[in-house]
Structures are given as C-alpha cells and as structure tokens.
Amino acid sequence: MEGVNWTSRKEFVLLGFSDYPKTEMLIFILCLVMYMVILMGNSIIIVLTLLNSHLHTPMYFFLSSLSFLDICFTSSFIPKMLTNFSSETKTISFYGCMIQMYISFAMGSTECVLLATMAFDRYVAICNPLRYPVIMNKRLCVQLVVISWVVGFLDSAMETALVIRLPFCGKNIINHFVCEILALLKLVCVDISLNEIVLLIDSIFAFFPFLLIIISYIFILSAILRINSAEGRKKAFSTCSSHLTVVTVFYGTILFMYMKPRSKSSIAGQFITLFYSVVTPMLNPIIYSLRNKEVNAAMRKLLKRLTFMRGL
User: Fold this and answer.
1) Hey, which end of the chain has fewer CB within 10 Å, N or C?
2) Cα–Cα distance for residue pair 140/79, rounded to 1 Å
3) CA separation for the pair 292, 295 (Å, rounded)
4) Whole-model pTM?
C-alpha cells in the first residue's frame, strides 16, 4: 500500500458488488423491496402500539422501541447503498462515511442492550407475574430504553473517535457496500493495535447482554416447567417465542459473521453483513406479528376503523 495520506481528499469509494453487475442489480431490487417492508412493518407496529390501549404494556413499549431502532439503523445506510448500486459513481464523503459508521454501530450496540432488556421483561412477567405491574412500571421501562440508547451511542462514539483520527493511505477504495469498521481499518497505514483491542472489548461487551438473555431464559424455562397444565405452559412459552426467535437470528448472524474463517474473498462477508443489516430488521416485525394474537387483533381493529372512516 502506498504511503500517501489521502485523508484530505475526503472521499471513499464503496466497491460493493461492482465486479458482479447482474448480481448487484438483483441485490438492488431485493434491498429496495426489503427496505419498504422494514419501513412499513416497523411503522405499523409503532402506530398500533400508540393507538391501541391494549398494547400499552412494557412488552409492546420495548417492541416499538426496537421497531424505531430498526428504522433508524437501516435508514442510516440503505438509501446511500441503493444510490450507489444504481450509479456508476459509488463514492461517499469522508465525514459521511464516519457518520454512517457511527449511527450503524450505535444502533447495533443499542439493540444488544435492548434485547437483553426485553428478556428481563419476559423474565419478570413469567417468574414474578403478581409483582410484574409494580416492577415493570412506566418509569423503569423508560429508564431501561434510555440506558440502552445512551450505552449504544457512547460505545459507538468511542469507536468512531479512534477511527477518525487515523491516517488513511494508498487507494481510497472500501471493499464493501457500507462504511464497515473492519473494512475501513484495512486502509489505515499505521499501527491499529489500540483499535483491535477496543474492538475485542466491544465484542465481549456485545455478548454480555447475550449472557443476561441466556440467564433470563434459564429462569423462564425453569418456571414454565413448573406450570402444571399443558395449556399454561404453552401460553407462557408463546409470550417468549417471538423474542427468542429474534435473539437467535440476531446473535446467530453476528456469531457466524465474526467467527467464520477468514478468506481472501470478501463477497461472503458482504452477503453475511447484508443478511444481518437488512434481512434481520425486516424479519423482526414479521416474527412479532405472525404469531401474536394481540398485534393481529389490533391490526384488524385499525383496518376496520380506516374502512369505516373511508366510507363516511
């Protein structure tokens, strides 16, 4: 790599899938459709939670927070990604890249903490049902969500501050479709030991909430098995199944992405990132709505109200 600092040019080229134009066009169409589903699906959950009094519970408050987070996360990079896919000029400004990395990293960190918060909510609901309204009061729910966002943004601020100070040399081409931190660090021409240490600490931090989720579900499973009736066990498990599915998809993708063997080709890594950053946020509202009777009932009620208003 050439030892020339080009940071003053203030521009990156996002290579993405440029070597595979037909694949890139197919991904463009799929991502456009999925982004529309993300916006529509998560917006519906937020609207239903706000309008339906039966959904004014901690569980749906956290779910609407997750939906808002997914909208922010995907909106931080998908519009620019779609623009680059449909254009021959695939550039992004230096500071635009830093902002994109900061927001996406912050949203990812926030989701880790928020999923742990949702697991705690399910733990209290099943293991302490009589005290649930007292423990999970409105004030505590708001505090837990605020803590999730603050932790996520502070963590991302530290990572971004360490990257933005680094000199970039040689070619200004990022072999990715987004400003992903690992792809960016490959362009740095100085020692990045500090960044690697912080990333390692962050990886441990990301799985600390996962550990809390596992502990919560151990207690939840123990409580469910103590329920005498099969119907009671089924009802208790159904309240956790959606969240458990989302956690499995979210952390399963992260585990596969960071623990897979390194290869010279980055295409596989880009597809995994695409699944993590686009497919997973699209699946969240689908998972929570398909088997959720309360969400489906609220949706039918809203549609009836809209139909009635249209008929007036």
Assistant:
1) C
2) 35
3) 5
4) 0.86
Asked if 274 contacts 27 with a C-beta cutoff of 8 angstroms, the reply is yes
Q: CA-to-CA distance for 91 and 6, rounded, in angstroms?
A: 15
Q: Could you read off the pLDDT of 74-116 as tens digits, one per residue? A: 999 999 989 888 888 888 888 888 999 999 889 988 998 999 9
22 pLDDT more than 60: yes
Q: What angle do CA 50, 51, 56 make, to 5 degrees?
A: 55
The tens digit of pLDDT for each residue in 206-219 reads 788 989 999 998 99
Amino acid at 18: S
Q: How many residues does the chain have?
A: 312
pLDDT at 9 over 70: no
How far apart CA 193 and CA 91 sit, in angstroms, is: 28
| SS3 annotation, the chain | CCCCECHHHCEEEECCCCCCHHHHHHHHHHHHHHHHHHHHHHHHHHHHHHHCHHHCCHHHHHHHHHHHHHHHHHHCCHHHHHHHHCCCCCEEEHHHHHHHHHHHHHHHHHHHHHHHHHHHHHHHHHHCCCCHHHHCCHHHHHHHHHHHHHHHHHHHHHHHHHHHCCCEECCCEECCCCCCHHHHHCCECCCCHHHHHHHHHHHHHHHHHHHHHHHHHHHHHHHHHCCCCHHHHHHHHHHHHHHHHHHHHHHHHHHHHHHCCCCCCCHHHHHHHHHHHHHHHHHHHHHHHHCCHHHHHHHHHHHHHHHHHHHC
Question: 273 pLDDT exceeds 60?
Answer: yes
